[in-house]
Amino acid sequence: GLLLAGLFCGMIYVRAKIKPELAPRGEPTTLKEKIISLRGVIGMLALFVLILGGILGGIFSPVEGGAIGSVGAFVYALIRGRVTWQMVVLSLKESLSITCKLLLILIGVGVLGYFLAATRLPFVLADFITGLEINRYFIFAAVIVFFIILGCLLNVIPMILLVLPTIFPAIVALGFDPIWFGVITVLTMEMGQITPPIGVNVFAIASVAKDVPMEDIFRGIFPFFLCMIACVVLLVLFPQIALYLPRLFFG
């Protein structure tokens, strides 16, 4: 995450230097004004530290951390007087909609899991791939391209639940680290979300910025897409980037 954010920031800085009109300077502010402006993020920062610290400290699981984060964010908004009845109703409707969609996906995953267990397809596929006289990195590259293309058509969660169970055993059989592969998989799936011709997230942006042509949105996204490719290349060349924190906290 920090690597990708750094690449994004570097790209924005370089583009702003080359074309200053892309990022016009704002009004100058004093150090005191900058410090005062940080007061609005103290609560959310404390909530972030609480959740991350609790998960890494083994106090609660990531799922429980998500629930604690939701309750904490609601209480924080309530204290600041930003909660309205309309907002609560809208949040409940959206939560219900997302939950129902996930349950339908999980039902499909259950059927798929039964099929995969009965046919042993993942293990047959793993044996077939490991038997090929091809460099494992060529196979890995093909999987990455497949995920990017699939990301154009599906959201991340259905891809993880429906596709990974089939491919994951083959990747492990090829000798790739599962954590490292998981990080790259999520990143490449996210790349697919902003990739033409569909790009699910691009349509979400277009629905908000209705006065901006789709071509301009894709053109603006392209530099960020290149940064994500650079991030994947760095993770492939230096796997320690993805494995450092897991090994530091979990051994």
TrEMBL record:
Keyword list, A-Z: Cell inner membrane, Cell membrane, Membrane, Transmembrane, Transmembrane helix
Example of a GO MF term: transmembrane transporter activity
This protein's record includes keyword Iron-sulfur: no
Example of a GO cellular component annotation carried by this entry: plasma membrane
Residues of the TRAP C4-dicarboxylate transport system permease DctM subunit domain: 1-241
PANTHER family associated with the record: C4-DICARBOXYLATE TRAP TRANSPORTER LARGE PERMEASE PROTEIN DCTM, SIALIC ACID TRAP TRANSPORTER PERMEASE PROTEIN SIAT-RELATED
Protein name: TRAP C4-dicarboxylate transport system permease DctM subunit domain-containing protein
Organism: marine sediment metagenome
